[in-house]
Amino acid sequence: MVVDDEPYLADLVATALRYEGFETAIAGTGAAAVALARAFDPDLIVLDVMLPDVLGTEVCRRIRSTGSQAPVVFLTARDATEDKISGLTVGGDDYVTKPFSLEELIARIRAVLRRTRRTDPGGGRLTFADLVVDEDAHEVRRDGRRVDLTPTEFKLLRFLALNAGRVVSKRQILDHVWEYDFGGNDGIVQTYVSYLRRKVDAFDPPLIHTVPRVGYVLRLPRED
């Protein structure tokens, strides 16, 4: 959820997030944000501090009082230390100062989501077809048989499993698996996908597929 009283900026941030695969909703005031948080139940909130009706810090406090634990990334032109402390004290998880680059904001959002993501009710298991990714045991099985992966291969497969059925780009994979401060090029993604295929797709049917000029997707083979 993006909360900012500047329509152009809110739309710009929301569009960038949609491009990265996020479902987004926009609010332009604090009151609208509190109501929308109840209806939309966001996984994360990008929240401007200087709203026309109430400060973003108060909006955060009100949303928290409803029981929402969605992480909050404050967005503001104010960069004084006391403002940052105030934002983090009321339950904010990060603080981005205007002006900012969309790349930085998205990277910070992904970092916050990685830090705050809770184990799912299924005991930390992601399943697709005969593939099981056990996050708690850090173990992968296909057709009931264990597949030994390196830590990076495990993170890559986990990301594909989280997005099963949806094509993810090399850049999205870099952001999630190697994180936003990775200094290399996206050729490493192709290399690690090939490593992963040798292990995971040694079974039938193959699950990891390339979508030319777009990215990769975890899905069952299509019948032509």
Automatic annotation (TrEMBL):
Entry coiled-coil feature ranges: none
Chain positions with 4-aspartylphosphate modification: D48
Record feature DNA-binding region, as residue ranges: 123-220
One Pfam family from the record: Response_reg
SMART domains linked to this entry: REC, Trans_reg_C
GO molecular function: phosphorelay response regulator activity; transcription cis-regulatory region binding
Annotated ranges, domain Response regulatory: 1-113
PANTHER family: REGULATOR OF RPOS, TRANSCRIPTIONAL REGULATORY PROTEIN TCRX-RELATED
The protein's name in its UniProt record: DNA-binding response regulator
Source species taxonomy: Bacteria, Bacillati, Actinomycetota, Actinomycetes, Streptosporangiales
